[in-house]
């Protein structure tokens, strides 16, 4: 008996659903839960992480993030203004910078500046935090410059014309009229970049960090080494989530709000 | 007539191959209201934008009072404080209250104190009939109210001449009157005005002179009664017939 088009579609949906359920049941039955949970999540190892994972590791991750973000935002604003400049060499310089640092993996930049150059030249970073923060800001600024430029370009042209016709010079018009409006536009994408930055600080753990400057990822990794159990990294992952989830929810809320406002 | 406030001579403007202004000579005396009319694309907005250098002329000179704006040595920002500009799209600053919109340039450009600039702003808001809106934000105002705030913002700089670039073209028809009313009151007080407009009634009743532009040149200029009532040029007659027949 031939099925109608609608009956065939429904049969297909049920088929997909049944297969998914079967897969979940199979995993639940065949995995040795006792062994797995022992390897991944041992409660005494969880408690052992505290309070140091917060007072030291999470604190260091926050330090890297905050200074990386501030440095990236400041330089990003500078490069965005240079890209929009009427002076051609400024535009070229900023465009080249942005392409280079967006095109090279952060890991390579970190190794080069934090590790390669000191070894090759004998020069030493004056502060172990700077060793991570500087390469992080350099890369972050390349991404933020593009975001800020897009925000500035999204402000209607008439705003600049109105400011200039009132006798404001270009820098003053930018600072008091254009940039405040641009930042309102780019708060959501900039918050997303902050989330990426929080996660990117984990790469700093590849540098030879001292005990005092260990970030969350390094802390978790060292924990795995000393306990031969995955729990410390899972706890570190949960601490990352505790930082990033509120921010991603904030962005979702801001986007819903602007959507509602523009309706 | 006394010394002109605006003196434009031999003005040319090209956008690439597009020769928009082809030699404009125009003077505006103190207290005069010059209305520029003409078909779209005739260059009237470009002419107005050249007067405060929002467009850089390709040739010719623009003088406003003692400032020769086309001189490369001119301090454009200073000259612009003497030239008020009102745009078709209002261009109020959306992140600032009405009061701050009117105060920001007084403070940052003229260096007036917060109290002085607020006092001047309130006086101008009263004049455009929006005293109760000083704390509102532009998005909370109608188009007509926004344009009246924009006029107050330009007047706050105490300009010697006001430029109106199709100030009522973006408004709903029922809001045009309130803006034209403010402009007329301004003209009655003796403000020197250069007005690009499609409102023939305003040009006829308020203008001291009407300039008809077409194809980047001034075709005809003179008292409103002559240019609008009894045009000499065939092109002017055709334009007036086309705007009146709808």
Structure description:
The complex is a heterodimer of chains A (263) and B (246). Chain A has 263 residues and is mainly α. Helix content of chain A is 82%, strand content 0%. Chain A has eleven helices and no strands. Chain A is flat. Chain B is α/β, with parallel strands linked by helices. Helix content of chain B is 37%, strand content 25%. In chain B, helix 4 packs across helix 5 (143-155). The radius of gyration of chain B is 18 Å and the shape is globular. At the A-B interface, helix 8 and helix 9 of A face helix 2, strand 6, helix 3 and helix 5 of B.
Characteristics of this structure?
heterodimer, A: 263 residues, mainly alpha, MetI-like fold, 11 helices, 0% strand, B: 246 residues, alpha/beta, six-stranded mixed β-sheet, four-stranded antiparallel β-sheet, 9 helices, 10 strands, 37% helix, globular
């Amino acid at each position: 008996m031939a099925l109608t088009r609608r009956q065939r579609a429904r049969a297909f949906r049920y088929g997909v659903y049944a297969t998914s359920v079967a897969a979940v049941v199979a995993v639940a039955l065949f995995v040795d839960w006792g062994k797995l949970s022992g390897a991944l999540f041992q409660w005494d190892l969880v408690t052992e992480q505290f309070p140091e994972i917060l007072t030291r590791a999470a604190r260091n991750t926050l330090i890297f993030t905050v200074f990386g973000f501030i440095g990236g935002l400041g330089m990003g604003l500078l490069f965005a203004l240079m890209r929009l400049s009427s002076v051609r060499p400024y535009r070229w310089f900023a465009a080249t910078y942005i392409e280079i640092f967006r095109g090279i993996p952060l890991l390579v930049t970190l190794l080069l500046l934090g590790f390669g150059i000191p070894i090759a030249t004998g020069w030493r970073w004056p502060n172990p935090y700077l060793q991570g923060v500087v390469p992080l800001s350099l890369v972050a600024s390349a991404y933020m410059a593009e975001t800020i430029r897009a925000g500035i370009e999204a402000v209607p042209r008439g705003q600049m014309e109105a400011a200039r016709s009132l006798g404001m010079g270009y820098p003053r018009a930018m600072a008091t009229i254009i940039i405040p409006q641009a930042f309102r536009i780019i708060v959501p994408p900039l918050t997303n970049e902050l989330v990426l930055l929080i996660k990117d600080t984990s790469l700093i753990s590849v540098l030879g960090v001292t005990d005092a400057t260990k970030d969350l990822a390094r802390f978790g990794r060292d924990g795995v080494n000393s306990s031969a159990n995955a729990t410390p990294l899972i706890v570190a992952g949960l601490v990352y989530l505790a930082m990033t989830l509120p921010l991603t929810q904030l962005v979702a809320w801001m986007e819903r709000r602007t959507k509602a406002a523009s309706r | 007539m006394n010394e002109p406030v605006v003196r434009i001579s031999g003005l040319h403007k090209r956008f690439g191959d597009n020769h928009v202004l082809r030699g404009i000579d125009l003077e505006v005396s103190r207290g005069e209201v010059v209305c520029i009319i003409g078909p779209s694309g005739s260059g009237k907005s470009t002419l107005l934008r050249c007067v405060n250098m929002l467009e850089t002329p390709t040739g010719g000179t623009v003088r406003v009072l003692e400032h020769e704006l086309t001189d490369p040595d001119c301090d454009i920002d200073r000259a612009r404080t003497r030239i008020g500009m009102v745009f078709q799209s209002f261009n109020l600053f959306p992140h600032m209250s009405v009061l701050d919109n009117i105060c920001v340039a007084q403070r940052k450009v003229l260096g007036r104190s917060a109290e002085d600039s607020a006092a001047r702003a309130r006086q101008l808001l009263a004049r455009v009939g929006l005293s109760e809106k000083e704390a509102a934000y532009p998005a909370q105002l109608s188009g007509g109210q926004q344009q009246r705030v924009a006029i107050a913002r330009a007047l706050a700089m105490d300009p010697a001449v006001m430029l109106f670039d199709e100030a009522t073209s973006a408004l709903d028809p029922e809001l045009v009157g309130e803006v034209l009313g403010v402009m007329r009151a301004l003209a009655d007080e003796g403000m020197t005005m250069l007005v690009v407009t499609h409102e023939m009634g305003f040009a006829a009743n308020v203008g001291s002179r009407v300039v008809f532009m077409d194809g980047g040149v001034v075709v005809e200029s003179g008292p409103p009664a002559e240019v609008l009532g009894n045009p000499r040029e065939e092109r002017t007659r055709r334009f007036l017939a086309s705007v009146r027949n709808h």
